[in-house]
Amino acid sequence: MGDPHPAENSTGATEASPPPKVGQDSWWKELAMVALGLVVVVVLGVGHIPHIENFALDFQAYWNRELPQGSPQVVIVSINQEDYESDTLFRARSPLDPNRLNELIDKILEGKPAVLGVDIDTADKSFRSIAKAALSPKIVWARDARTSEKEHGPSNVAPVLGDENEADQMPQVGVAVLLKDADDGVIRSYKRIVDTSKGPLASFPWAIAKRYAEQKSGAKAATPSVDTSAFYIRYSDVPPRASYSASKIIIPGFDWKGGIEDKVVLLGGRYDRADKHKTPYGEMDGVEVIANAIETELGGRAQKSVEPMVLALIGLVELVALIVLFRLRYFQHRYGWALLCSVIGIVILAIVLVLLNFLPTWPYAVVFGFMLLLVEVADHVLTRSKDTVKTILR
Length: 394
Hints:
Layout: H1 28-45, H2 52-63, E1 75-79, H3 81-85, H4 98-110, E2 115-119, E3 139-144, H5 164-169, E4 173-176, E5 179-180, E6 187-191, E7 193-196, E8 199-202, H6 204-217, E9 230-232, E10 243-245, H7 246-249, E11 264-269, E12 276-279, E13 282-285, H8 286-298, H9 308-327, H10 335-355, H11 362-393
Parallel strand pairs: 1-10, 1-11, 2-3, 2-11, 3-4
Antiparallel strand pairs: 5-6, 6-9, 7-8, 12-13
């Protein structure tokens, strides 16, 4: 058995064994970190870790509730439950009375909005009586999707103003489809282009945003490529949204007083329980969800879902940074400081990604970084344990 007493030098002083140096062991740790990095990037990229992306989007919705200054806010004219049941309006009948709907549209157009989006199901043939209203360049009609859109497979779309053939030829029509998350049913995204049984068609929010741009610039807005990617809805509830009820605006003598002039106005219902949807802010009417999607486009804040290559780049940056950090000469005998700097670096990267609106990449960066640190700490503990065992067995 080895000498249990520590070695002494020529002066009789005890020689302390040097502390283990960070990064001077074999390359297995770096290889393990690279392998783990590749696995994590692939797993996170295909969404196999549930709720991480949803958490980021919900956090952003609560953290930044304010509409950016100067960004256009949509005004809603709603048909609420009282309006729907009123004997002087719609008498609780579906489909809605085309004549009453036409009156509402005419009254809204008197306020000189830039664009009027009509989020009402007009598939019934009775709506052919208001077909002339479709000629107004300010109106964009919603085209109902008869089946809920899935990640794969086209949606079946309904007629507009009671005429399917006319709907196919009308330029100011958008498919009103809401994308529910498969895990919790919350609506966090929308599409610009919807894959339908009639081919790729513009979504209702995108059609309104394009029409608004055309009205403001006087030039035809560019048509995007046939890209059916999902875009995140940037929800906001500050400042409070201007809203009018149908019964209020049809009162004789009602004056808009410039309240909707040059603005985007959305006409929709708030009376149908089937049109209530879960959002990061709780339950919302479909017309409110669509208003937030439109504002996302109008404010230039549209952002696609995270691409796996973006996650791979973030992971690569963290992987290289951690390997270099733990091999720096300064940290050879300062393991605690190396860990602290690593944690601070991960937090700073997450904050930068949030500030740059690279959503929802920041939680991926945090998870990925700390998983790599876990490998490093595990290696450090094992190395120290092996050194301790060797010392005892001497």
